[in-house]
Amino acid sequence: MHTLIITPYKTFGTVATSTIRYRSNDHWVNGFLAMPSEQAEPLPCIIFNRGGSFDFGLIDDTMLERQLSFIASWGYVVIASQYSGNGGGEGKDEFGGADVEDVICLKEYLAQVPQADVSRIGMMGGSRGGMMTYLCLTRVNWLNAAVSIAGAADHDRQVILRPKMIEVFERAFGNTPAGRKERGAVNFAETFCKTTPLLMMHGTADWRVSPKDSLDLAAKLLDAKVPYRFVLFEGGDHSLSEHRKAEWGMIKEWFERFVKNREVLPDLEPHGK
To answer: A Gene Ontology MF term for this entry (predicted)?
Structure first.
């Protein structure tokens, strides 16, 4: 394992941020780290997966302050990747291909952060970041909880809903049917980790990623007995801007329950009177 290169960046209120540079798949990738400026003991961690593709949706100072630092202010060490090929990093953004390793390997790099308790890790992301979270849930079993906001789960639907995405998919992975299937969680919901509770949220007025992606995935996760909570926000747009308070309240509670406090998983077998 290579050394995580940490360079102090900016402070937002009580949260200190740093830029990070690390090796993934034999090339350099850039990202960010955020944590409370003062902490008495190691803190639980959140891996934050950004949305967008290539340089669209890059983590900038606004996102760093309003999202990563906001989450860190709850008492977490937050780490995030710009993904391969973006933000000055090497390699190629494959939109859910080999770049998934850019996210998974962050656990090992968190172990190099003295303030991080790597026995308690959550993951979250919106849109493409939700897709990255889904893909990680099929490959690792060490996440204590996960959150997806408007996660893309059906890319065959996506190219019909938004033909503009064809160009993105062409650039990222050739837009092959196999490539779309490999990135679409609706095709392999049964492989999701069954010990990681997932909070899924989506707005009914989202035109960027159809809420049907989450509806279809939720139905399959139910059959697979994956622990999850699914919330549809009436009239919510892609970023749930009309429901910001409720959205962040649910995210905070979810991570407090299952990451910070390690709450026991719910009983998914039929029960009750």
So the answer is: serine-type endopeptidase activity
Separation CA 108–CA 67 (nearest Å): 23
Q: How large is the greatest C-alpha to C-alpha distance in the chain, in angstroms?
A: 58
pLDDT bracket for residue 39 (50, 70, 90): confident
| pLDDT tens for each residue of 214-227 | 999 999 999 999 99
The verdict on residue 270 lying in a domain is no
Q: Which domain holds residue 218?
A: 38-70+112-259
Give yes or no for a contact between 145 and 266, defined as CB atoms under 8 angstroms apart: no
168 domain residue, yes or no: yes
Q: Report d(CA 255, CA 241) in Å as an integer.
A: 21
Whether 30 is in a domain gets the answer no
CATH assignment at residue 131: 3.40.50.1820
C-alpha to C-alpha distance for 69 and 76, rounded to whole angstroms: 9
Classify 172 as helix, strand or coil: helix
Please give the model's pTM, rounded to 2 decimal places. Answer: 0.97
Helix (H) or strand (E) holding 27: strand 27-36
Q: Would 103 be classed as within a structural domain?
A: no
Tally of structural domains, the chain = 1
Inter-residue contact 138 to 192 (CB < 8 Å) = yes
Tens of pLDDT, residue by residue over 180-229, are 999 999 999 999 999 999 999 999 999 999 999 999 999 999 999 999 99
Helix (H, G, I), strand (E, B) or coil at 75: coil
